[in-house]
Inverse folding.
């Protein structure tokens, strides 16, 4: 991306006019003293002033509107996490003389540096969870005097800008790892508590030999029931983790789109209420098995009472 379209020696004409400028093309004439004559907005240089000013070189500068997209990660206030910033900026040459004097050739690198440091000055004041606030602050750069002054020092003027802010890749992965570790720790804790509680429950429920023909049969039945119950809980935990994953993806998408934090909290609360409601739909086999275990428990309890009464 180069703003200078051409560089040619000045040809002073005896008859005829110099080439006129346009809305998208300006001319900058320069002499040995470094003086510049800028012609733009449809005007043209007079042969007499070119001769009098001893202008010997003319630069044609492109003043049409350009667009550039900045897409990089920029650190937040803690210096460890980063926002992923996508800023699309529309700009044009507002001062052709500065472009010529500074000899700006590779504008892509220049724009990248200007935007990076301007954006960094904003993001370093915000924690990583303030995506919406960062988005608003970056959009406000278009009307920021310092931001426009910096661009003006390079002969440029900002026409419009669009911003999209997300969590940086490493930050997203770090948060996911933390959530996974937290879920795994909670799952282990619940599993351990549940296993102990279930085992105690089954030992108490089928504590007497009762309807079983032997101690071995009773023990085998208890362990089978215990393993079945543990499998059920593992399935429930799996379903819970899948629900939590869907909720997490939904919230991340809403944050990415810059949704209102109040709306996000309402969605989280609603999802939590839905997930807390347990509705079990048992198959015919499940119901039969459940009835069998309940009858065994009742029979065992009845046998125990008969022995006590006898």
């Amino acid at each position: 991306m180069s703003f200078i379209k051409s560089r040619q020696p000045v040809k002073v004409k005896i008859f005829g006019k110099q080439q006129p400028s346009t809305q998208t093309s300006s001319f900058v004439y320069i002499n040995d003293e470094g003086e510049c004559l800028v012609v733009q907005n449809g005007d043209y240089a007079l042969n007499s002033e070119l001769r009098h000013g001893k202008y010997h070189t003319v630069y044609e500068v492109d003043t049409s509107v350009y667009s550039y997209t900045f897409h990089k990660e920029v650190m937040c206030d803690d210096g460890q996490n980063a926002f992923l910033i996508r800023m699309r900026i529309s700009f044009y040459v507002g001062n052709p003389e500065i472009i010529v004097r500074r000899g700006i050739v590779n504008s892509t690198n220049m724009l990248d540096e200007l935007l990076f440091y301007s954006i960094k000055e904003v993001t370093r004041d915000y924690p990583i969870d303030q995506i919406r606030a960062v988005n608003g602050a970056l959009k406000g750069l278009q009307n920021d005097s310092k931001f426009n002054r910096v661009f003006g020092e390079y002969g440029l003027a900002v026409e419009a800008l669009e911003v999209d802010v997300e969590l940086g890749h490493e930050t997203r992965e770090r948060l996911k790892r933390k959530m996974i570790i937290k879920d795994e720790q909670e799952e282990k804790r619940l599993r351990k508590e549940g296993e102990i509680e279930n085992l105690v429950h089954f030992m108490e429920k089928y504590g007497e030999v009762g309807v079983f023909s032997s101690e071995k049969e009773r023990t085998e039945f208890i362990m089978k029931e215990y393993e079945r119950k543990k499998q059920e809980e593992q399935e429930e935990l799996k379903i819970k983790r899948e629900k939590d994953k869907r909720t997490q993806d939904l919230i991340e998408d809403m944050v990415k789109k810059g949704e209102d934090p109040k709306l996000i909290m309402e969605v989280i609360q609603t999802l939590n209420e839905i997930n807390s409601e347990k509705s079990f739909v048992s198959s015919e086999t499940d119901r039969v098995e459940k009835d069998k275990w309940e009858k065994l428990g009742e029979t065992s309890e009845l046998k125990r009472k008969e022995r006590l009464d006898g």
